[in-house]
Amino acid sequence: MKNTRNIYKMTRTETTDVVIGRNLLYSIGVFLKRYKHTRYILLSDETTKKLYAKNVIASLERLGVPVHVFVLAEGEHNKNMENIVKILHFMLKNNFDKKSAVVALGGGVIGDVATTIAALYHRGIDCVQVPSTLLAQIDSAYGGKGAVNIHEYKNMIGVIHHPVAVIVDMNLLKSLPREQILSGLGEVLKYAIILDKKLFKKLEGLKKIDGELESIVRSCVGLKMKAIIQDPQDVKNARVALNFGHSLGHAVEITSHLTHGEAVAIGMTFAIKISRKINIISEGQATRALRLIKKFGLPQTVSGINIKKVRKIMKKDKKNIGGRTRLVLLKEIGVVSVQENIRDGIINKVLKEIIT
Asked: Last residue of some domain: 112, 144, 175?
């Protein structure tokens, strides 16, 4: 497929330039030249830095401005306020100004931290996302949501600060471990189940995912951006559907060894089963959705975690209002419904089926 570029208008003053293709790392400086940035901080983890930072740095340095590198330790637990303060101090020490920019080279953790830093420094500087995982390329790099965790509560302190550009180099997926491909597939299936019947049918018929990854990435980016444009600041509930599977998913991710996408798969299983229990989805539609999750080898149960702790975390979910649990449930393939006041007995019964 050819390299493509689309500019999305987020607000009256903000746009996001999305470039998707191959061999793009060598040309990042070309894409960013028009912004006239004075200095860059490249955020990455050690693994991604070793694989790709050299090419990104070389391309940025051709713009004739300083490029600084900050390496963040890998893992969700490093998405914390302590590291945010460290990076901000590093930027102050190295004289970053209002026309500087943050470049996120990595997966979801790096993207979240970069977005938060860009929103806070000088009350907002440009952020550029260069996602290196399937999960980030289809989901977390877009929409401007950046956050850090507080203890066992995920993404509780955060911002919305849209990236000026997202540069998606499909070649970066070649070095991705199978575990990370699987994690990304959790979010791919979410898009298919809640937003796109055509993508759902395509995935149902696929025997192998590998040859279709680029097409799938492009489809998911289109779906994500369509949802974001309807509600750029996440205040109208238009983006709430994208949280399907995340009420339980975030709690499982924090309390288990599972990746984000695996945890979301368990969360989607939970949401589908709740939907069936309260009779808002037919048995046939529920079975199809659950079968698709199983087809791609994603987990639908988890063991070794405490149900009471999971329930405690779920009660702090950001979607909840006035102490009421709000769940994004499934009415049919491609249609969701936000439900409140589901009886604790139903929730606990389904949790016991899933947390074994």
From this structure: 175
Whole-angstrom Cα distance, residue 181 to residue 274?
27
Predicted model pTM? 0.94
Task: Count Cβ atoms within 10 A of the Cβ of residue 174 and give its class: 0-12 exposed, 13-18 middle, 19 or more buried.
Answer: exposed
Q: What is the β-pairing status of strands 15-21 and 4-9?
A: antiparallel
206 shares its domain with 347: yes
Q: Would you give per-residue pLDDT tens digits along the chain (356 residues)?
A: 889 999 999 988 889 999 999 999 999 999 999 999 999 999 999 999 999 999 999 999 999 999 999 999 999 999 999 999 999 999 999 999 999 999 999 999 999 999 999 999 999 999 999 999 999 999 999 999 999 999 888 999 999 999 999 999 999 999 999 999 999 999 999 999 999 999 999 999 998 888 899 999 999 999 999 999 999 998 887 788 999 999 999 999 999 999 999 999 999 999 999 999 999 999 999 999 999 999 999 999 999 999 999 999 998 888 877 778 899 999 999 999 999 889 999 999 999 999 99
What's at 319, amino acid-wise? K
What are the residues facing 153 on neighbouring strands?
A: 150
Q: CA–CA separation, 300 vs 294, rounded Å?
A: 7
CA distance 91 to 70: 10
Question: Of 229, 26, 253, 64, nearest to 154 (Cα)?
Answer: 253
Are 14 and 143 in the same domain? yes
Q: Which residues pair with 321 in a beta bridge?
A: 324
